[in-house]
UniProtKB/TrEMBL annotation:
Subcellular location: Cell inner membrane
Protein name: HemY domain-containing protein
Role noted for this protein: Involved in a late step of protoheme IX synthesis.
Pfam families (UniProt xref): HemY_N
Disordered as annotated region, ranges: 408-470
Topology in the lipid bilayer: Multi-pass membrane protein
Amino acid sequence: MRTSLKLLVLFAVAVAAALLLRDSSGYFMVVTGDERRTVSLAAGLVFIVIAFFIFYLVFRFIGVLMDAPTRWRNWNQRRHTRKDYDLLERGWVELLEGRSSPAEKDLTRLLNRSRDNGRAALASLAAAKAAHNQSRYAERDALLLTAQSKAQGNPRMLDATTTIRAEMLLEQGESKQALALLEPLAQAGGANQDHLQRLLLRGYKQLGNQDKLLQVARTLSKKGAIDTFEGQRLIEHAGAAVMKATTRDSWANTWKSFSSAEKAMPLVALAAAEKAQAAGHFDTAGQILEASLREHIDARLLNAYVQCPADQVNGRLTKAQQWLEKDENNPDLLNALGFLCLAAQLWGQAERYLTRSLKLREDPRTHTLLGALYDRLGKPAEAVKHWRFATASISMLPTVEGEKYLPAADTRMDPDGPPDRKRAEQQVEPERADEASAKTIYAKRQEADDEYFDSAPIPGIRADELNEKS
C-alpha cells in the first residue's frame, strides 16, 4: 500500500512538472571551452535527472564491491546459523518423540560444527539427556562437562546446566549428589524457583528427609505450584513422620508449629494423639482427635478415639453421639459407639449400634464386638456365630450355616485290600493274631480320638465358662 502511494505521488509530480515546463521559454547553456551548447529547460532537467541516477548506480556498485568481503562473511554466518537451527530443531523433535539414538547423533553433530557457544551448550545438554535416556552415563557426564565449559560467561546457561544435571541424577536415584547441586542454586535464587523447589521436593522424598520435605511442600502448596491433592497428601505424610520422630518433651512445640488445617489431617492428628497419650495427657489426646473428627469422620481416628481410660468413656460417648446426629448412616461411627457402649457396660445400646453398623456393612470387627457382647450376656450360640463370621472374614474361609461336623469321606474308589494280599494270606497264624490285636488297639485309639475331638472346646470360648453354663 505504501509503495502504491509513493508511485502515485511521483506520477503526480511528473505530470505537474510536464505541465509547468510545456510553456516555459527558459533554456540551459553549457559552455565548454570555445563551444556553447544551448538546450531547453525541460531537456536540461531530464538530462540532470538521468545523470543523477547514473552517478548513483556507479557509486552504489563501487560500494557493493568494497563491502563484498563483509557481505560474504555475513551470508556465510547466516547459512551456518540456519543449518544449526535445523539440526537443533530436528534433534529436539527426535528427543521429544523418544528416539534418543538419532537425537544424540544430530545433536552431537551440531556440537561439533557449531561456532556459537550458546548453541553448542544447548546441543550438549540435549545430547546429554538423550544419552541419559539410553543409560549411557559416562557419555552423559562428558557431554555435561562440555556444556559447562561452553556456557562459561553465560550465567543463565550455567544455571540450566546445573539444573538439568541434578534432574538426571534424581532420575538415576543419586539424591545426595542432586541436592548438593540444587540447594546452593535455590538459595542463590535460580531463574525458575518453582521448578527447583519441585526437584528439591523429589530429592527430599527420595532421601527421606521429612523436615525439609514438609517445608518445601508447604511452600509449593501456598504458591499453587503443585496439585492440591498431592500437596495435601505430602504435607500429611511428612507432618505425621515429623510428629512421630519427636521426643517425649518436644512433641508439644512441634504440634504448635502446625497450622489449623494441618492439625485436622488424620495422620498428623493420630501421630500427635499417640505422643500425647505416651506422655500421659489423655485429655489432650482426646481434644486432638476430636478436632480432627469434627472435620471428617475417619475410621483410623475413631479407632484411636475409643481407646481411652475408663473415666473418659462417658464423655467420649457423648461426643460420638453428637456426631451421629449429623451422620446417621456411618458404619465406622456406629462401630465406635458400640465399642464405647461395651466399655461403659451399656449392653442394649451396644447391641443396637453394632447391629445397625452390620446392616450397613459387613465387618469382622463388628462381628467380633457382637461376639464379645453376647458372651457377656450369656448367649454362647450367638457369640459363637459372630466369632465364626469374624474368623471367616479375616481368613477368607467360607462359612456354612448350621454345619457342625465334617462330611463323610468318599470311599467308593478305595481298593478292596492291600496290594500284598497274597503274601499276607501266606503268613502264619501267630502273625494273624498279632494283626488282629493291633487292629483292635487301633480301633480303640480311633474311638478315643473321636471322643477327644467331640469334647474339644470351640475356639473363642473358655472351657471353664462352658462348664459353668452347662
